[in-house]
Amino acid sequence: MTTDAEEPTLTIDELAARAGVTVRTVRFYGTRGLLPPPVLGPRRVGHYGRVHLARLALIEELQQQGMTLAAIERYLHRLPSHLSAHDLAIHRAVVASWAPEEVETLTRAELERRAGRPLGDGDVDRLIAMDVVRSGDGVYQVDLGLLRLGVRLLDVPLSQEAILAAREVLIEHSRAAAHELSRLLRGEVAERDARDVKSLSAHMHPLVVQALLTTFQRSLKEELGEWLTESGTG
After folding, report:
1. From 70, 113, 193, 203, which residue has the greatest number of CB atoms within 10 Å?
2. Fold (topology level) of 12-97
3. pTM for the complete prediction?
Protein backbone atom coordinates (compact mmCIF):
# COMPACT_ATOMS: atom_id res chain seq x y z
CA MET A 1 0.00 0.00 0.00
CA THR A 2 1.39 3.42 -0.95
CA THR A 3 1.51 6.60 1.10
CA ASP A 4 1.84 10.23 0.12
CA ALA A 5 5.41 10.18 1.44
CA GLU A 6 6.51 7.56 -1.09
CA GLU A 7 8.20 8.61 -4.31
CA PRO A 8 5.83 9.07 -7.26
CA THR A 9 6.25 6.09 -9.58
CA LEU A 10 3.63 6.54 -12.33
CA THR A 11 4.60 7.63 -15.82
CA ILE A 12 2.29 10.09 -17.53
CA ASP A 13 0.77 7.22 -19.55
CA GLU A 14 0.10 5.21 -16.39
CA LEU A 15 -1.36 8.24 -14.61
CA ALA A 16 -3.70 8.96 -17.51
CA ALA A 17 -4.84 5.33 -17.65
CA ARG A 18 -5.48 5.17 -13.89
CA ALA A 19 -7.42 8.44 -13.96
CA GLY A 20 -9.40 7.59 -17.09
CA VAL A 21 -8.19 10.63 -19.05
CA THR A 22 -5.86 11.17 -21.99
CA VAL A 23 -2.18 12.05 -21.77
CA ARG A 24 -3.01 15.26 -23.60
CA THR A 25 -5.49 16.16 -20.83
CA VAL A 26 -2.87 15.58 -18.13
CA ARG A 27 -0.41 17.83 -19.95
CA PHE A 28 -3.09 20.48 -20.48
CA TYR A 29 -4.01 20.53 -16.79
CA GLY A 30 -0.32 20.80 -15.95
CA THR A 31 0.15 23.86 -18.14
CA ARG A 32 -2.89 25.49 -16.48
CA GLY A 33 -1.48 24.87 -13.01
CA LEU A 34 -4.23 22.42 -12.04
CA LEU A 35 -1.68 19.68 -11.40
CA PRO A 36 1.65 20.01 -9.60
CA PRO A 37 4.68 19.32 -11.79
CA PRO A 38 5.94 15.73 -11.91
CA VAL A 39 9.05 14.59 -10.09
CA LEU A 40 11.87 14.31 -12.62
CA GLY A 41 13.76 11.03 -12.57
CA PRO A 42 16.64 9.66 -14.65
CA ARG A 43 16.79 11.08 -18.18
CA ARG A 44 14.34 13.76 -16.97
CA VAL A 45 11.37 11.40 -17.17
CA GLY A 46 8.46 12.79 -15.15
CA HIS A 47 6.84 10.63 -12.48
CA TYR A 48 3.46 11.13 -10.82
CA GLY A 49 1.87 9.89 -7.61
CA ARG A 50 -1.25 9.77 -5.44
CA VAL A 51 -1.63 13.55 -5.18
CA HIS A 52 -1.85 13.82 -8.96
CA LEU A 53 -4.46 11.05 -9.06
CA ALA A 54 -6.46 12.72 -6.29
CA ARG A 55 -6.35 16.08 -8.07
CA LEU A 56 -7.56 14.51 -11.31
CA ALA A 57 -10.42 12.84 -9.41
CA LEU A 58 -11.37 16.18 -7.84
CA ILE A 59 -11.27 17.93 -11.23
CA GLU A 60 -13.53 15.21 -12.67
CA GLU A 61 -16.00 15.67 -9.80
CA LEU A 62 -16.07 19.44 -10.26
CA GLN A 63 -16.72 18.96 -13.98
CA GLN A 64 -19.60 16.61 -13.20
CA GLN A 65 -21.10 19.36 -11.05
CA GLY A 66 -21.17 21.57 -14.14
CA MET A 67 -18.27 23.86 -13.25
CA THR A 68 -16.43 25.56 -16.10
CA LEU A 69 -12.66 25.24 -16.47
CA ALA A 70 -12.24 28.83 -15.23
CA ALA A 71 -14.34 28.06 -12.13
CA ILE A 72 -12.35 24.87 -11.50
CA GLU A 73 -9.10 26.85 -11.75
CA ARG A 74 -10.36 29.36 -9.20
CA TYR A 75 -11.48 26.56 -6.88
CA LEU A 76 -8.18 24.68 -7.04
CA HIS A 77 -6.01 27.79 -6.76
CA ARG A 78 -7.74 28.63 -3.48
CA LEU A 79 -6.72 25.29 -1.98
CA PRO A 80 -3.46 25.09 0.01
CA SER A 81 -0.67 23.77 -2.20
CA HIS A 82 0.50 21.22 0.39
CA LEU A 83 -2.74 19.19 0.57
CA SER A 84 -2.22 15.43 0.62
CA ALA A 85 -4.12 12.90 -1.47
CA HIS A 86 -6.22 12.18 1.63
CA ASP A 87 -7.10 15.86 2.06
CA LEU A 88 -8.03 16.14 -1.61
CA ALA A 89 -10.23 13.06 -1.30
CA ILE A 90 -12.14 14.78 1.51
CA HIS A 91 -12.66 17.85 -0.69
CA ARG A 92 -13.94 15.58 -3.45
CA ALA A 93 -16.34 13.84 -1.04
CA VAL A 94 -17.77 17.21 0.00
CA VAL A 95 -18.21 18.28 -3.63
CA ALA A 96 -19.85 14.94 -4.49
CA SER A 97 -22.30 15.37 -1.63
CA TRP A 98 -23.85 18.36 -3.40
CA ALA A 99 -25.09 16.16 -6.23
CA PRO A 100 -28.00 13.70 -6.21
CA GLU A 101 -27.23 10.00 -6.29
CA GLU A 102 -25.88 9.08 -9.71
CA VAL A 103 -26.33 5.51 -10.92
CA GLU A 104 -25.19 4.40 -14.36
CA THR A 105 -25.49 1.14 -16.27
CA LEU A 106 -22.03 -0.02 -17.38
CA THR A 107 -20.47 -2.97 -19.15
CA ARG A 108 -17.58 -4.78 -17.46
CA ALA A 109 -15.07 -2.87 -19.60
CA GLU A 110 -16.72 0.47 -18.75
CA LEU A 111 -16.78 -0.47 -15.06
CA GLU A 112 -13.03 -1.13 -15.11
CA ARG A 113 -12.42 2.14 -16.95
CA ARG A 114 -14.39 4.08 -14.33
CA ALA A 115 -12.59 2.18 -11.57
CA GLY A 116 -9.23 3.09 -13.11
CA ARG A 117 -7.87 -0.44 -12.81
CA PRO A 118 -8.52 -4.04 -13.86
CA LEU A 119 -11.10 -5.82 -11.70
CA GLY A 120 -11.08 -9.56 -11.12
CA ASP A 121 -14.26 -11.51 -10.42
CA GLY A 122 -13.42 -11.42 -6.71
CA ASP A 123 -13.07 -7.63 -6.81
CA VAL A 124 -16.46 -7.25 -8.49
CA ASP A 125 -18.02 -9.61 -5.92
CA ARG A 126 -16.67 -7.42 -3.10
CA LEU A 127 -18.02 -4.26 -4.74
CA ILE A 128 -21.41 -5.96 -5.06
CA ALA A 129 -21.28 -6.99 -1.39
CA MET A 130 -20.54 -3.35 -0.44
CA ASP A 131 -23.62 -2.29 -2.47
CA VAL A 132 -21.43 -0.16 -4.71
CA VAL A 133 -22.29 -2.30 -7.75
CA ARG A 134 -25.37 -4.33 -8.67
CA SER A 135 -25.16 -6.99 -11.34
CA GLY A 136 -27.75 -8.21 -13.82
CA ASP A 137 -28.12 -9.31 -17.45
CA GLY A 138 -24.41 -8.88 -18.22
CA VAL A 139 -24.29 -5.23 -17.13
CA TYR A 140 -23.69 -3.43 -13.83
CA GLN A 141 -25.68 -0.74 -12.04
CA VAL A 142 -22.97 1.42 -10.48
CA ASP A 143 -23.24 4.16 -7.85
CA LEU A 144 -20.53 6.44 -9.23
CA GLY A 145 -20.35 8.46 -6.02
CA LEU A 146 -19.26 5.32 -4.14
CA LEU A 147 -17.21 3.60 -6.83
CA ARG A 148 -13.85 5.24 -6.11
CA LEU A 149 -14.26 4.64 -2.38
CA GLY A 150 -15.21 1.01 -3.01
CA VAL A 151 -12.20 0.50 -5.28
CA ARG A 152 -9.86 1.91 -2.63
CA LEU A 153 -11.36 -0.46 -0.06
CA LEU A 154 -10.37 -3.40 -2.26
CA ASP A 155 -6.75 -2.83 -1.17
CA VAL A 156 -7.51 -2.40 2.54
CA PRO A 157 -6.17 -5.40 4.50
CA LEU A 158 -9.50 -6.11 6.22
CA SER A 159 -11.84 -9.04 5.81
CA GLN A 160 -15.04 -8.58 3.84
CA GLU A 161 -16.98 -9.14 7.08
CA ALA A 162 -15.12 -6.32 8.84
CA ILE A 163 -15.70 -3.89 5.96
CA LEU A 164 -19.42 -4.67 5.87
CA ALA A 165 -19.68 -4.34 9.67
CA ALA A 166 -17.93 -0.95 9.49
CA ARG A 167 -20.35 0.10 6.75
CA GLU A 168 -23.33 -0.77 8.96
CA VAL A 169 -21.85 1.21 11.87
CA LEU A 170 -21.34 4.27 9.65
CA ILE A 171 -24.84 4.02 8.17
CA GLU A 172 -26.48 3.64 11.57
CA HIS A 173 -24.70 6.59 13.18
CA SER A 174 -24.99 8.77 10.06
CA ARG A 175 -28.74 8.27 10.04
CA ALA A 176 -28.94 9.10 13.74
CA ALA A 177 -26.93 12.32 13.20
CA ALA A 178 -29.05 13.23 10.16
CA HIS A 179 -32.24 12.68 12.18
CA GLU A 180 -31.08 14.93 15.03
CA LEU A 181 -29.88 17.66 12.66
CA SER A 182 -33.15 17.49 10.75
CA ARG A 183 -35.08 17.83 14.00
CA LEU A 184 -33.08 20.94 14.94
CA LEU A 185 -33.57 22.53 11.53
CA ARG A 186 -37.29 21.84 11.57
CA GLY A 187 -37.52 23.83 14.78
CA GLU A 188 -35.72 26.74 13.15
CA VAL A 189 -37.88 26.84 10.01
CA ALA A 190 -41.24 25.90 11.47
CA GLU A 191 -42.66 29.33 10.75
CA ARG A 192 -41.17 29.76 7.26
CA ASP A 193 -42.63 28.89 3.88
CA ALA A 194 -41.48 26.07 1.61
CA ARG A 195 -39.14 28.27 -0.46
CA ASP A 196 -37.23 29.34 2.65
CA VAL A 197 -36.91 25.71 3.75
CA LYS A 198 -35.50 24.64 0.35
CA SER A 199 -33.07 27.55 0.32
CA LEU A 200 -31.82 26.76 3.82
CA SER A 201 -31.42 23.09 2.93
CA ALA A 202 -29.40 23.91 -0.20
CA HIS A 203 -27.03 26.14 1.78
CA MET A 204 -26.74 23.83 4.80
CA HIS A 205 -26.15 20.55 2.96
CA PRO A 206 -22.49 21.06 1.90
CA LEU A 207 -21.68 22.83 5.18
CA VAL A 208 -23.11 20.01 7.30
CA VAL A 209 -21.34 17.34 5.23
CA GLN A 210 -17.99 19.11 5.54
CA ALA A 211 -18.53 19.58 9.29
CA LEU A 212 -19.34 15.88 9.70
CA LEU A 213 -16.30 14.82 7.68
CA THR A 214 -13.97 17.10 9.62
CA THR A 215 -15.38 16.10 13.00
CA PHE A 216 -15.26 12.41 12.18
CA GLN A 217 -11.71 12.68 10.84
CA ARG A 218 -10.52 14.31 14.07
CA SER A 219 -12.40 11.83 16.27
CA LEU A 220 -11.05 8.84 14.35
CA LYS A 221 -7.50 10.22 14.57
CA GLU A 222 -7.87 10.58 18.35
CA GLU A 223 -9.31 7.07 18.72
CA LEU A 224 -6.57 5.50 16.61
CA GLY A 225 -3.94 7.48 18.52
CA GLU A 226 -5.24 6.15 21.85
CA TRP A 227 -5.37 2.61 20.46
CA LEU A 228 -1.78 2.77 19.21
CA THR A 229 -0.61 4.20 22.54
CA GLU A 230 -2.34 1.42 24.47
CA SER A 231 -0.91 -1.26 22.18
CA GLY A 232 2.60 0.21 22.53
CA THR A 233 3.01 0.85 18.80
CA GLY A 234 2.37 4.57 18.81
Report:
1. 113
2. Multidrug-efflux Transporter Regulator; Chain: A; Domain 2 (1.10.1660)
3. 0.51
